[in-house]
Design goal:
heterodimer; A: about 475 residues; alpha/beta; 21 helices; about 50% helix; B: Rna Polymerase Sigma Factor, Chain: A; elongated
Chain lengths: ~475, ~180
């Protein structure tokens, strides 16, 4: 190795990245050539100064980054939850604000005290309030302690034809797991599934196992449906519809399942799942058990975390963009491998338990979101409006696309808002209960619900509140 | 939550899944990497406010893309790739608007009151790609393969470019010292 060539090895030598043979030659040359040695020493010495650039402390940026990403999350959430309604909301708000301002002006000018009081009583909603509310909820969900016994209503949504309340078990820290199973090979066709006896694990912890089968049209007669809808519950047998009780059948692995649940789910706390759960709402005052809804049609294994409550039982109105959002955030996980058999049930439960532990939740609920051809018969045993249930049961999208487009092009409005809300006492009762909670977030949800679904010709906002409050 | 003992990949998983304590996990990631990132960014941009902005932007972009990040990979490579791209974008835009803004990086001699500043001053004389490589290799200790990933250029190019940049750095350093 000569002096000319050795320069090309400086960089590799400095990195100690020369092959063995050239390395020997390189250092042999340095031993023999003082100039090159001096050159390489200087080279190394100069380069050794470069790491000094690290001697600088970064400013405190953690808090501002956290704030930025949280705001971003909120915006994303809002954008995904109300992507199409925002402009409409804005329009309504503007009109409302203008209207209220005008009334306020006239009221203050002419009627003074009386209308002034009216204005303070009727809080005009706006989008900022909704955003603040959501932000507040998200903040509190991340900072507050888990309150395992709390099931305050913090959110509402539609399920099928009914207003449903989510009853998140962890009040400000809503996390829940949904377990559903599928039968892709249709191997259990026409069978009744998972009929189990009620059981309790201990005094305060009861397990409710609901089983249902998606029947095809030919099977959708009253008897098969009644056989199919099983309420196995503890503590309130008098509330089980008599026909269902008489048809309770214990078939298939009841003891295996109950033993398994008994052994594995005792640490879970329950969250009622909307539609069917609403049936239990008056029964389970303070549920401490597990509700697992098993159905062989929509077969997903869903993990939800964070604060947003997805809920639907026999309804299907989980907004697909919302679902996509949850998927994108890893709030949902789908697992399609479950066939409806005891091994897979065990596997699914076991996996759900693992996931639940992983995300620090103790809750399991079931979510269905398919069209249920037996909805109208189920409705006999649920506080649903029969007329609406029938309409919804008739609606069967032929494809996923149709499903989406129908939702977005106003299925809700077509089938729900045209109903005469005034005649729907169960809805009114629910709304009234929600508003009586004096919870801003709930109130805003109700307002949002009104703005997005109720036929404005039927009610103006203030009339809507008056209607809700009228029988208090 | 005690995030200190957690590995990078575990922290990333926390943030990804928004598990309880994800904010602490994200803060811990920032604590672990902000100094080296800031040193890198500042050495490239030579402006403290701008560097702070780019540092924040790096972590925000990291958060936005975290769902697609493979936790088994090195977080540092990814973070430096983000910050490097941000700096390139900045210079690209700066070049576009060069006539409007030409004063950002002018430093007086009095700024060069430490070895670190002198090193930055000399590095600044190199082209952006060489600067980045030199910083990543000789200041921050990334290996050639990681640098190749961060900068999105072939391994062979990295190696030869680093060698050239080192020679250039040495020349400039010696002339700077001779001026003093």
């Amino acid at each position: 190795m000569n002096c000319g060539k050795i320069l090309s090895y400086f960089s590799d030598a400095y990195d100690d990245a020369i092959d063995t043979e050239p390395k020997k030659e390189f250092f042999r040359h340095l031993e023999e050539c003082l100039n090159c040695k001096k050159e390489y020493d200087e080279y190394s010495k100069v380069l050794a100064k470069i790491p000094t650039v690290q001697i600088i402390s970064a400013p405190q940026i953690e808090q501002s980054v956290l704030t930025a990403v949280k705001e971003m999350d909120i915006k994303n959430t809002l954008a995904d939850i109300i992507p199409e309604t925002t402009p409409k909301l804005a329009a309504v708000f503007n009109i409302k604000q203008i209207a209220f301002s005008a009334i306020a002006f006239v009221g203050i000018f002419f009627a003074g005290f009386y209308l002034n009081k009216l204005l303070t009583d009727i809080k005009t909603p706006n989008q900022d309030d909704l955003i603040r509310s959501l932000q507040k909820q998200i903040e509190s969900s991340r900072t507050s302690e888990i309150k395992p016994d709390s099931h305050d209503i913090t959110n509402i949504s539609f399920s099928q034809n009914n207003l449903c309340c989510s009853l998140p078990l962890h009040n400000n820290n809503l996390k829940f797991v949904s377990l559903e199973l599928e039968d892709p090979q249709d191997e259990f066709k026409n069978e009744l599934y998972v009929l189990t006896q009620p059981f309790k694990l201990n005094e305060n912890f009861k397990v409710y196992l609901l089983a249902g089968e998606q029947l095809n049209d030919t099977l959708c007669d009253q008897n098969s449906v009644l056989n199919n809808i099983i309420y196995a519950q503890h503590n309130a047998p008098e509330k089980i519809p008599p026909l269902c009780l008489s048809k309770l059948r214990y078939k298939h692995f009841k003891s295996e399942i109950s033993d398994f649940l008994d052994a594995n789910l005792k640490d879970y706390s329950p969250v009622p799942t909307s539609g069917l759960a609403q049936y239990f709402e008056g029964i389970v005052k303070k549920p401490r058990g597990v509700i697992i809804v098993i159905n062989n049609f929509i077969h997903s294994f869903i993990i939800c975390r964070d604060k947003i409550c997805l809920q639907n039982s026999i309804g299907y109105l989980i907004n697909s963009s919302l679902q996509d959002y949850f998927l994108s955030k890893n709030y949902l996980e789908f697992n399609w491998k479950y066939s409806f058999n005891i091994q897979n049930i065990k596997l699914a439960i076991s996996e759900s338990k693992t996931k639940a532990n992983e995300i620090g939740t103790k809750s399991i609920v079931g979510i269905h979101y398919q069209i249920s051809p037996n909805a109208d018969i189920i409705a006999d045993y649920l506080p649903f409006d029969q007329k609406t249930v029938s309409k919804i049961a008739d609606f069967t999208p032929s494809s996923e696309d149709e499903f989406d487009s129908l939702i977005y092009t106003g299925y809700l409005k077509k089938h729900f808002s045209k109903l005469n809300l005034k005649e729907r006492s169960s809805v009114k009762k629910t709304l009234s209960t929600l508003l009586s909670l004096n919870n801003d977030a709930v109130r805003e949800s109700v307002i949002s619900l009104y703005l997005t679904t109720v036929d404005k010709k039927e009610f103006k906002l203030e009339e809507f509140f008056n209607w809700v409050d009228s029988d208090k | 939550m005690q995030v200190g003992p957690l590995k990078d990949s575990e922290l990333v998983e926390y943030v990804k899944k928004k598990s309880a304590g994800w904010e602490e996990a994200l803060s811990e990631i920032m604590k672990r990497y902000k100094n080296s990132l800031y040193a890198f960014i500042y050495s490239l941009l030579r402006d403290k406010h701008l560097s702070e902005d780019k540092l924040q932007e790096t972590f925000i972009k990291f958060y936005i893309a975290i769902q697609s990040f493979d936790s088994s990979k090195k977080i540092s490579t990814w973070l430096f790739k983000i910050s490097h791209n941000l700096c390139i974008d900045y210079f690209r835009k700066k070049k576009e608007y060069a006539s409007e803004d030409s004063t950002v990086f002018e430093k007086s001699d009095s700024d060069r009151d430490s070895t670190a500043e002198e090193v930055r001053f000399v590095i600044e004389k190199l082209d952006l790609e060489s600067r980045s490589m030199l910083l990543l290799r000789d200041a921050l200790g990334f290996d050639y393969e990681e640098i190749s990933k961060i900068m999105g250029i072939p391994l062979g190019t990295v190696k030869s470019r680093i060698s050239r940049s080192r020679n250039k750095f040495k020349e400039l350093w010696i002339s700077l010292m001779a001026e003093k």
